[in-house]
Amino acid sequence: MFKEIKNKYLRYSAIVVFFIIIFFSALQINFLWLFGYSPSYRDIKIPTLRVGSELYTADGKLIGRYFKENRTPVNYGDIAPSIVHALVATEDVRFYKHWGIDVQALGRAVIGLGKDGGASTITQQLAKNLYRTRYNKSSGLLSKIPLVRKIIPKLKEWMTAVKLESNYSKNDILTMYLNTVSFGQNAYGIKTASRVYFDKEVKNLSTSDAALLVGMLKGTTLYNPVKNPKNALDRRNVVLTQMNKYKFLSKDSLTELIKEPIKLKEGKSEDGSDDDSYLRSAVAKYLEKWCTDNGYDLYEDGLKIYTTIDSKLQKYAEEAVQEQMKTLQRRFYSVWGNEDPWYDSEKQKVDYPDRAMKNLPIYTLLQKKYPNNPDSVIAYFNRKKRMQIFTYKGDRDTLFSTLDSIRYYGKILNTGMMTMEPASGKIKVWVGGIDHKFFKYDHVNQSKRQAGSTFKPFAYLTALEQGANPCDKYTDKPVKIGYQDKGETKYWEPKNADYSISYREMSLRWAMAKSVNTITAQVTEKVGWDNVVKYAHECGIDSHLESVPSVSLGSNDVTVYEMVKAYSTFLNKGVKTDPILVEKITDQDNNVIEDFKPKTKRVLSEEIAWLMLYMFRGGMEEPGGTSQALWEWDLWKKNNQIGGKTGTSSDYVDAWYMGITKDLVTGVWVGCDERTAHFKNGEQGEGSRTALPIFAKFMEKVYHDPSSGYTYGPFPKATVPITRTINCPSPRIVEDTTSTDSVIVDSTEFNTPEPTEPVPAVTVEPEVKKEEKKPDPVQNQPAATVPLTKKEERELRRKQRQEEREKKKNEKNNNEN
Question: Which of 68, 480, 622, 767 is most buried, by CB atoms within 10 Å?
Answer without folding.
Answer: 622
